[in-house]
Amino acid sequence: MNARIRIGLYSVSAIMLAACTNKLLESPLSSTTSNATSTATTLDDYKRGLAQRIVAVNSSEVYVGRPQALLRAVIVVKYFVNADGQLLRADIMRTNRDRNAEATALATLRRAAPFPKPDSRLLRRGEVEVAESWLFNNDGRFQLRSIAERQMDE
């Protein structure tokens, strides 16, 4: 192959790679006020901010890229955050009985606490209830559904 064609192919490849982005990395972490209160005004925005915090604190356990077509496990956790951003409790709501994935989901949630304080308008009985799905690939790393890229096709 002559040098011009090779350089052209390398250039096109470099441009295509530069255009690729990762949803986990392109989303800026949600902001907070000076007293550590989240600026999110909707439950969905607050949930995405919590997911970003969980991913940031546990980055070595997070899968970067699109989740594989057939996931090893999907663990749904319902958890509660109080007005001060403290994790009150967490319960497994859905599981395929993968005990390692369950333990990882709960451990990564606990490590990420405390969270930004929720806006007072999001509180119900002094707490915010959040349900999040941990999507586990075969290698044991995860993404969180609320900020994950679209899953690969089979």
Describe this structure in words.
The chain has 154 residues and is of the alpha+beta class. Helices cover 32% and strands 20% of the residues. The chain is built from four helices and four strands; from the N terminus they run αααββαββ. It has helices at 3-19, 23-26, 43-57, 99-112, and strands at 73-82, 87-94, 127-136, 142-144. It has a four-stranded antiparallel β-sheet. Helix 3 (43-57) packs across helix 4 (99-112). The longest helix is centred in the first third of the chain and has 17 residues, at 3-19. The radius of gyration is 19 Å and the shape is globular.
pLDDT < 50 runs, ≥5 residues: 5-28
Look at the helices and sheets and give the structural class: alpha+beta
Give the helix level as a range of percent.
25-40%
Name the strands of the widest sheet in spatial order: 2-1-3-4
Measured on Cα atoms, how large is the radius of gyration?
Answer: 19 Å
